[in-house]
Amino acid sequence: MPDGDVTPITPGAGPADLLSLGRRVRHLRQRKGWTLAELGAAVERAPSAISLIENGRREPRLSLLRTLAAVLGVDLADLLDPTPPTRRAALEVAVERAQRGPAYTALGLPPVSLTRRLPTDALEALSALQTALIRRLHEQAATPEEARRANRELRADMRGRDNYYPAIERAAAEVLATVGHTSGPLSHHVVTDIAAHHGFALHHVRDLPQSTRSVTDLRNHRIYLPQSLSPGGRDPRAIVLQALGAVVLGHPEPKSYGDFLRQRIETNYFAAALLLPERAAVELLQRAKNSRDLAVEDLRDAFAVSHEAAAHRFTNLASHHLGIPVHFMRVHENGTLYKAYENDGVNFPTDPTGAVEGQRVCRKWTARAVFAVPNKLATYFQYTDTQRSTFWCAARVEDTADGQFSVTIGAPFVASKWFRGRDTTHRATSTCPDPTCCRRPPAVLADQWSGQAIPSARAHSHLLAALPPGAFPGVDETELYDFLQRHAPAAG
Ligand SMILES: [Zn+2]
After folding, report:
1. Distance 349 CA to ligand 1 centre (A)
2. 347 alpha carbon to ligand 1 midpoint, in Å?
3. Which residue ranges form the domains of the chain, and what is each CATH number?
4. Cα(27)–Cα(16) distance, rounded to whole angstroms?
5. Direct distance between the N- and C-terminal alpha carbons of the chain, in angstroms, rounded to an integer
6. What is the per-residue pLDDT across 101-115, written as a single tens digit (0 to 9) for each?
7. In angstroms, what CA-CA distances link 392 with 24, 288, 331, 421, 424?
């Protein structure tokens, strides 16, 4: 084999290494006072080939590197030293690397030619701008890990304040006072008045960007909304009030994913505090508690909001005003937890990082048992003994474009006495996260089907979910085996 003719410099040497090498070759050549042609002649290569090497566009073979090192009077190791020889060379490498990267390329700007005529201070400024740009792009694209950490921190913060935000309650009360609304359902007309009071006109359009619920134009004081009366099953009043919330609460542009989440929680809270005003809602709840007849349905009906909105609002007020710790869950029919809040010690399923969103809820819990109840119009009540303690829960199923979801409100056993539905006879025991509770398929089925099936998993749509454990991530093995059992041709 010829002297290392096909051996790369270092395994996996990237463009950055080639750029550093090129700058070092150029630095050493210029120190000798040689032209490209003179160095080319010394190593028996064309000047254009040397130029390609100096610009980091060609990877020289080891034999050529040895020759270059010899004629330039340095050791091979010195030639391959990745440290740029001068500040100027370091800047050139950094700028060139950024120019060749995807972030800069995506801007469609012409690359700057890094000749000797380019002043070093211009190079300094260019490099600093590129660094700032790339940092911004990274901040905007949160990794799943960052997203999970932000979610976890936010949930801990909400638990610490019993999910009650006095400043937002005050802001909402002031807004309601300006339009003279105190109780009952907030009409579309009053919502429009509230917007007008803050100088905003509502515009319903057909071509709202697919990825948005609303767009607020701060320059022209307009809020653009979809034309559909109930876009994606959402309360159109809530969409307007959330958009106004960002203005009233003075939200700056979010600087991180955590900021973004916090602002979304706050604007949702603001909208809920307008749709279910604190004073009127607490009066209703206090009366119901006194007669031991608390029910999310009454809150929902008094203010004409969705069951989910009423249940979530209940978590804002129950602990702070009624002294009742609670939990809230929104669970897809496939068992995936989409939204969760607790300050009553219920042990939500978590992944190893402590994230709960995207995890599969115990099959025995009310939030999943409710899907098996034939009467979807009635609220389903259940006491569940868990590893920690017993909880009383009330759940309802709602149809959405993305399938059925259960909305659950729960409280510790001792607090069940305040709720309608406390006399239920439904009881279940959950030993999750013990795998024998519901995660491992029943032995009879497993014996029958283990190793005998290849399901193709549906793409996991939930962004925040880690890959669930199991042989086929995302596939519920009990469900799978049940299915196989049901559809298997009769033996014999
Ligand atoms: Zn379980």
Report:
1. 10
2. 11
3. 15-139 (1.10.260.40), 145-275 (1.10.10), 443-487 (no CATH)
4. 16
5. 67
6. 777 777 777 888 888
7. 72, 17, 17, 9, 9
